[in-house]
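Researcher: Let's walk through a ligand-bound prediction step by step. First, I give you the protein sequence. Second, the SMILES string for S-adenosylmethionine. Third, you return the three-dimensional complex as structure tokens. Ready?
Model: Ready.
Researcher: Here are steps one and two:
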Amino acid sequence: MTDAALPGNPRHHAEPASLDDVQGWFWDHDRHSFDWFLGRQEKTGVTGDLLEMGAYLGRSAIVIGEHLQPGETFTVCDLFDSDAPDDENAAEMDLSYRKTLTRSAFETNYLAFHDKLPEIVQAPTSVLSRGHIPAGAFRFIHIDASHLYEHVVGDLQVARVALQEQGVVVLDDYRAQHTPGVAAATWEAVFNHGLKPILLTECKFYGTWGDPEPFQRELLDRIDLAVGCHLSIDQLNGRRVVRMHGDSEGIEPFRGSRHQSRLAAESARREAERSADDARLALNSARDEAVLDLAVRRARAAEARRPVNVAKRAARDLLPPVVTSAIRRARRG
Ligand SMILES: C[S@@+](CC[C@H](N)C(=O)[O-])C[C@H]1O[C@@H](n2cnc3c(N)ncnc32)[C@H](O)[C@@H]1O
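Model: Step three, the predicted complex:
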């Protein structure tokens, strides 16, 4: 997991011009995969609510929010500026998020791309199991909050109850060295609790408690899949898993924010002002040099006009060279 975009003072959060200006951990293959799963659901008439556990500054939430259809609800659950429920989770927060994360920064980013905020639950994800969200109502859930085993197990239980039969759950960091808890919880859900893998990317696991086959068939038929996204098939305990790799060539960039043209105009104006300042400085310095040059030439001319120098030059020009040399020798004595 590598930081993207600008770390900054969260109290003076700058409006983003593009998704790349929103700090976070959400890369092109997953942006494309989110668009693919959510887009396929929309094309086939599947409706349902959307949920993200762990939004940070909104980089993935902004993309999920792009798919919200009329009548659907998008819920985001994050601690933001609140205290973590236990010491380990607090340490995780201090290490990775506290310096940059505020709810207000999330809201600024989200509203740069969307007219309305999602439903925000500012609390540990464990509250979601206490009737916060309706059972069987969700078509897509992204789990990317605490990466500690016990928390992810709880988040998976919430997802299982909340998802529709063919709903899709996505788990972040299911294979990173620093998140063994996510790996353990993910594969435990696969081997003991009926979660079926659909797709694996470098950072995320996509699965369902329904039937993975229709998703995998359309992926392998490359329906709506970007050029450059390569797919491979693995067998896992008799079950097919599709892996995505390759480059991001062919994945369309995400649209700009509502501030994009104003920020571009402001930046062009600042650039023009900087160039005008540079030109003014160059002009002043050229003018100073010319004034100095003139002063030096005037001083030299005045020196040349001094009577003693005029007499010397006249003697040099008028007397025969033998006499001039004799005078010089006599002066040297
Ligand atoms: C890896 S970040 C999310 C990144 C985001 N999805 C993205 O793609 O940029 C994890 C987020 O989970 C939140 N978080 C950590 N522990 C949590 C908990 N127990 N309950 C709710 N949110 C939590 C953190 O505040 C942080 O914003």
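Researcher: And what stands out?
Model: Residues 166 and 210 are 5 Å apart (CA to CA). The pocket of S-adenosylmethionine is lined by residues 24-26, 54-56, 59-60, 77-79, 84-85, 89, 93, 97, 101, 124-125, 144-146, 151 (CB under 6 Å).
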